[in-house]
Specification:
With about 450 residues, the protein is of the alpha+beta class. The chain has 13 helices and 18 strands. Helix 4 runs antiparallel to helix 6, helix 9 packs antiparallel against helix 11 and helix 11 packs antiparallel against helix 12. GO terms for molecular function: peptide transmembrane transporter activity.
């Protein structure tokens, strides 16, 4: 996993192999990697301007790895890097005071498709979490606005559906949102048959009702331990004593797949565009169960004026996702997607903690015409540094004269014995991977 990749070209905008007169790239695991522009990807040398695509503003893409965000931000302040990204996209808002002191550094805030969430185990073995009203109560008892304002300093957009606010076409904005209300939470729990209260805590058929939130030690706020501790206090305040258990990421994923948890705190990169594939993982039991993504099993709810059992909702969600997959009419597909989101929000097996806003620091005294678009991080980087209009002087491709040849010989059999015969296939290619017909080869 380290070193150079001299035999690989790839078809993307940057390359390792040092072809077309470019330097060879390097990848040193846990240290750094760098790539160089693949001029043939951008085809800026063709005559027809309709097909011309100019190369990016930068010639080399160098990406050092740092052990901490603090070290990476410090490196940007010293001029050693131009921008910093992390596993959550941008940087946490706690670094904003430091970033604002750096000369020639700009801060771009971009909406994210990712979101943090609490997944509730709704299997019957985890009662009373297998009761819809109880899960809805915990959703009401989770102050998402407080998490967004205190832990993420306002850099979060709230919402229950898995479709981000940046995708209004597919998002059901009318789905239940569960604004913070301990009154609503307490009323829902009190309405559950078999639920009684003693000493400020709830008991379900005489058994104390408790909760445990699993979180990974590698998580960053507000999706990690700090947020989980706040939620634990909120749930405890309504009579559901809640603890927080930190596990390794490997353990959390294993528990997620086997449903070996009571409540689990995680983050996900989210959905962009058509959500059909994601909906199969989230809402279709046949395809989603065992992946760790399925948000079932579903339990009894009142839907469109009729009470449905969990088994009926499970069948309905399977049918809706299957219909979404085969339907071609866009208006019909949007209606199905909205219906799925509405049912999922009512089931409340997942508590959405909000969509973060990526904070992207960029130190720049060289490039001009940077667009402050509303696109997410990848779109922002592409249109500002890798799009058609950003470079007026193309990089001329190196002449494709063959200077390095490789010869391959293949036979149908690995071992040939005396008296046996077969054919040899001999191939000759240059350093660009192109076949060289007519070359003389002596065997």
């Amino acid at each position: 996993m380290t070193g150079t990749a001299p035999g690989l070209v790839g078809s993307g905008p940057f390359m390792f192999n040092g072809g077309y007169g470019q330097p060879a790239g390097v990848w040193l695991f846990e240290d750094y990697w760098n790539l160089y522009v693949n001029p043939h990807y951008f085809v800026q040398y063709i005559n027809n301007p309709a097909y011309r695509q100019w190369t990016p503003k930068f010639f080399e893409l160098y990406a050092p790895r740092y052990l901490s965000l603090s070290a990476a931000v410090a490196a940007e302040g010293l001029g050693q890097v131009d921008t910093v990204v992390s596993g959550i996209g941008g940087i946490p808002p706690t670094f904003l005071p430091t970033i604002r002191t750096m000369p020639n550094t700009y801060i771009y805030s971009k909406p994210s498709t990712s979101y943090g969430f609490m997944q509730l185990n709704s299997f019957a073995s985890n009662s009373p979490f297998n009761i819809t009203a109880f899960r809805q109560a915990l959703n009401y008892a989770t102050d998402k606005a407080y998490l967004a304002s205190v832990l993420d300093e306002g850099y979060t957009v709230l919402g229950q559906p898995v479709i981000p606010p940046s995708d209004p076409l597919w998002r059901n904005a009318s789905a239940p949102q569960y604004s913070y209300s301990t009154t609503a939470a307490m009323a829902l729990i009190a309405s559950i048959p078999g639920m009684t209260q003693s000493g400020g805590n709830w008991y379900y058929y005489g058994k104390a009702v408790t909760a445990d939130i699993q979180t990974t030690t590698s998580a960053q706020t507000p999706l990690g331990t700090e947020g989980a501790l706040i939620i634990a206090k909120e749930w405890s305040s309504i009579g559901v004593p809640t603890t927080v258990t930190q596990e390794s990421f490997t353990t959390v994923v294993a528990n997620l797949i086997t449903y070996g948890y009571n409540t689990i705190s995680l983050g996900i990169t989210g959905i962009e565009g058509d959500p059909t594939g994601d909906f199969f993982a989230f809402y279709n039991q046949t395809d989603g169960y065992g992946t760790g993504f399925w948000l079932g099993p579903w339990t009894s709810i009142d839907y469109q004026g009729t009470n449905y059992t969990g088994a009926q909702i499970n069948s309905l969600m399977n049918n809706l996702t299957n219909e979404l997959n085969v339907q071609t009419n866009l208006e019909t597909r949007l209606g199905i997607a909205y219906e799925i989101q509405g049912i999922a929000a009512q089931e409340s097996t997942m508590i959405n903690l909000g969509y973060p806003i990526d904070i992207l620091p960029f130190t720049n005294s060289t490039f001009v015409n940077i667009t402050r678009s509303s696109l997410a991080y990848t779109g922002f980087m592409y249109w500002n540094f890798m799009s058609l209009h950003l470079r007026s002087t193309p990089i001329p491709p190196a002449p494709t004269t063959a200077t390095q040849l490789s010869v391959t010989i293949s036979t149908p059999k690995t071992v040939m014995f005396n008296g046996q015969y077969d054919n040899l296939t001999i191939g000759v290619r240059n350093q660009y991977g192109q076949a060289m017909p007519g070359m003389g080869v002596t065997v």
